[in-house]
UniProtKB/TrEMBL annotation, chain A:
Residues 218-247 form the 4Fe-4S ferredoxin-type domain. Pfam families: Fer4_5 (PF12801). This is 4Fe-4S binding domain-containing protein. Its main location: membrane. PROSITE patterns: 4FE4S_FER_1 (PS00198), 4FE4S_FER_2 (PS51379). InterPro entries: 4Fe4S_Fe-S-bd, 4Fe4S_Fe_S_CS, NosR_regulator. GO terms for molecular function: iron-sulfur cluster binding; metal ion binding. GO terms for cellular component: plasma membrane. The chain crosses the membrane at residues 29-47, 67-93, 114-136, 142-160, 265-285, 305-326, 338-356, 395-413, 425-449. The keyword Cell membrane applies. SUPFAM superfamilies: 4Fe-4S ferredoxins (SSF54862). It comes from Desulfosporosinus hippei DSM 8344. It comes from the Bacteria. It is found in: Cell membrane.
TrEMBL record, chain B:
Keywords: Membrane, Signal, Transmembrane, Transmembrane helix. The chain crosses the membrane at residues 185-205. It comes from Desulfosporosinus hippei DSM 8344. It comes from the Bacteria. Residues 29-56 are annotated as: Disordered. The keyword Membrane applies. Residues 1-26 form the signal peptide. Residues 30-56 have a biased composition (Polar residues). The keyword Membrane applies. This is YtkA-like.
Length: 455, 216
């Protein structure tokens, strides 16, 4: 196993030294109270999206999901890592189903091996289907997606052990995993203490808490991808080995020793997905699609979109491969290894662009959450939906995208430095820096034009 | 290993079921956001659409030399077999005065009901062609209203014939989308069915596991 690479500061500042916090995390209240709140809201969202008004404008489920939850999610990942997954109602359903009906079978090898690829494909499929059948702007579409996820969660919980869905199949989980790696909070175990441990309660579980639901062994954990801060290991570890520490954003990538091709691939696919989401919400998009239809000679809008979608998905991947091929001259590594290593560098930009895009929905349409909520009680309220003016939102979006671009540039440089030394770092990183800059500029440009509302 | 393989196969089959169920079962085709988004007046090309603040108050406006007509429906998103009130406001184009002496007839035809449409895309059955005469309504001067009940979901076309002894005649064609708004029970039932099936398989596996343990 590769050596430990965490920043040292993480060991010095431990939030669990703050006794009330530790007691709370060890109590049965955590994460229960957050979960219950999420479950209640989720139940309302499910009913609303499946049986409520068909007009997104009037549907509380649509507003709560796409104007509140989805925009806040990336911010959560950045601040608290994958904490959302600890309170996610689907995870709650999974635990409950498993407790009563679970066969607790071992996770099939093919899921362990190809789970991330399944997620990659599902993610692309969902993004595509959103534009073909309507998911976000159609309450029934959103309800269908939630229902299918719920079905998937229950089926896997009945058949397999722990949170198989969350770890190996949830597209949102893998997105959280990716984004939370840039995050400012990490949970790790003190390896010195763990070396002497014979019980491994954190993994196996004990009377205080079940074993890690995410199949993680805190002692061997090198990244945030799969820890959802559920607190089980804080409860179960008999040796007080768990640390909860702050860290610099993106610092996880600086010392990363293991890179997985499929994780990098997902990161680069998200570049395309975020770009598609941005472009399709711009006011000129329908005209552009019409133009594309005419110039491609295609009478069908869905086919025209599919062609553009494929181009948008493959271009970032090809650009990164190109950068890898150029940088290979200095590294001598295989294309696959180098691609896997540097793909992570785009995650800060992914996160920033995702946040920037959704910031518009949150701040320009935020009041619709209240209006639609009142609609649940038969009160029809109309009015302006924005909290702040468009130019203010735009400035915030620019700031985010610029920060994300710098974050990605710096991450690419640090990855090169760690793997090829300070001398070679800049020349190895240069092709990646250029590609990241292109992504950054393209994203920036999409925020220059006004977006369409979701509600 | 073989057991794992079997469960993988089961999972895969269920997952692909769910995946393919999406396009077939979900009633999610993103419908046009308004019920009336396009219109034309026979013999005249000038038309424009005005959108209210909320989609629920969406109004379609059409103009020709004599008339300025605006059309709205209540409810804004009609559903099959539920009455929908079509409100037609008729004004004199040049003076903007309400036209009070018009005779307004509405004829609705089902253009495309997805799987049920015939070759020409237009259905001529009695339940897919509905007619009614709009009468002056008290809500506002020059407003004519008629309540009709579309029988099926799909794209309907409304021909609105306006004839006034003082202003002449015109015909306006406005599309109307009729869609189901209730939950998609087929989808919900299918997901539920798959979950129940998985539950049965899980119980079967559980029992098998405990039998193996007992034997050991
Ligand atoms: S975290 Fe605790 S239970 Fe887990 S290996 Fe370390 S000391 Fe043992
Ligand atoms: S490592 Fe600990 S906090 Fe993280 S998911 Fe596992 S048990 Fe929960």
């Amino acid at each position: 196993m590769s050596q430990k690479t965490q920043p040292n500061s993480s060991q010095t500042k431990n939030f669990l030294k703050f006794k009330p916090l530790k007691r709370f995390l060890q109590s049965s209240l955590y994460p229960g109270i957050f979960q219950w709140l999420a479950v209640i809201i989720f139940a309302v969202i499910m009913v609303e999206t499946l049986a409520g008004p068909t007009n997104a404008h009037d549907n509380f489920g649509t507003a709560a999901t796409w104007v509140l939850w989805w925009p806040l999610l990336p911010l959560f990942f950045f601040l608290f890592g994958r904490f959302w997954c600890a309170v996610c109602p689907f995870a709650w359903v999974s635990d409950l189903t498993q407790r009563f009906l679970g066969a607790n079978r071992k996770v099939p090898n093919f899921l362990r091996k190809y789970g991330l690829w399944i997620i990659d494909i599902t993610f692309i499929f969902i993004t595509w289907s959103d534009h073909i059948w309507g998911v976000v702007e159609s309450p029934r579409g959103s309800g269908t997606l939630l229902l299918l996820i719920l079905g998937g969660v229950m089926v896997t919980a009945m058949l397999f052990e722990r949170r198989t869905w969350c770890r190996y199949l949830c597209f949102l989980g893998s997105l959280s995993g990716n984004y939370s790696r840039t995050g400012m909070l990490e949970l790790r175990a003190d390896k010195e203490i763990c070396k002497t441990c014979t019980t491994r309660d954190c993994y196996k579980g004990n009377s205080k808490a079940a074993g890690c639901p995410m199949f993680e062994f805190p002692m061997a954990m090198e990244n945030n991808a799969n820890c959802n801060l559920c607190g089980n290991c804080i409860k179960s570890c008999p040796h007080d080995s768990i640390r909860l520490t702050p860290r610099k954003p993106t610092s996880e990538f600086w010392g990363m020793t293991r890179a997985r091709f499929e994780e990098s691939f997902l990161a680069i696919v998200i570049v395309g997905i975020v770009f598609v989401q941005n472009i399709t919400m711009l006011e000129f998009y329908p005209t552009y699609l019409k133009w594309a239809e005419l110039s491609l000679g295609i009478a069908n809008r869905d086919i025209a979109f599919t062609i553009l979608f494929v181009i948008a998905m493959t271009t970032p991947v090809l650009l990164l491969f190109l950068a890898t091929a150029i940088s290979q001259r200095f590294t001598g590594e295989t294309l696959r290894t180098a691609f896997a290593r540097f793909g992570y560098a785009v995650i800060p930009l992914d996160l920033a662009a995702h946040m920037a895009h959704n910031l518009f929905h949150l701040l320009a349409e935020g009041k619709s959450i209240y209006y639609t909520f009142m609609g649940l009680f038969g009160k029809h309220i109309e009015g302006p939906t924005s909290f702040v003016s468009d130019p203010t939102i735009q400035i915030m979006q620019y700031t985010l995208v610029i920060s994300g671009t710098f974050g990605s540039l710096y991450t690419a440089y640090r990855i090169a430095k760690k793997n090829y030394g300070t001398k070679k770092a800049l020349s190895v990183a240069m092709p990646y820096l250029v590609v990241i800059l292109i992504f950054g500029v393209l994203n920036f440009l999409t925020f220059v034009v006004r977006m369409d509302m979701r509600m | 290993m073989t057991k794992n393989f079997k469960s993988s196969l089961i999972l895969l089959a269920l997952a692909s079921n769910l995946l393919f169920a999406l396009p077939m079962m979900a009633d999610t085709k993103s419908a046009p956001t308004s019920t009336m988004t396009d219109q034309n007046m026979s013999g005249h090309s000038s038309s424009e659409a005005a959108h209210g603040e909320s989609q629920a108050t969406e109004i379609t406006v059409a103009k020709d030399e004599e008339f300025e007509v605006s059309v709205q429906t209540d409810p804004e998103k009609p559903t099959p077999n539920k009455p929908v009130t079509i409100m037609i406001s008729v004004k004199n184009q040049s003076t903007q005065e309400p036209v009070l002496d018009a005779s307004v007839n509405v004829s609705m035809m089902l253009m495309d009901s997805g799987s049920h449409s015939n070759m020409s895309g237009m259905s001529m059955d009695s339940d897919t062609t509905i007619k009614g005469q709009a009468t002056l309504d008290n809500m506002e001067p020059g407003m004519y209203a008629v309540t009709l009940t579309p029988t099926k979901q799909g794209e309907w076309s409304q021909d609105i014939q306006i004839s006034s002894p003082t202003h002449g005649e015109t015909t306006l064609t406005v599309p109307l989308t009729v869609s189901k708004t209730g939950p998609n029970w087929l989808l919900i039932g299918s997901v539920g069915g798959i979950v129940v099936l998985a539950g049965i398989i899980a119980q079967f596996l559980k029992r098998k596991q405990s039998t193996v343990k007992e034997v050991q």
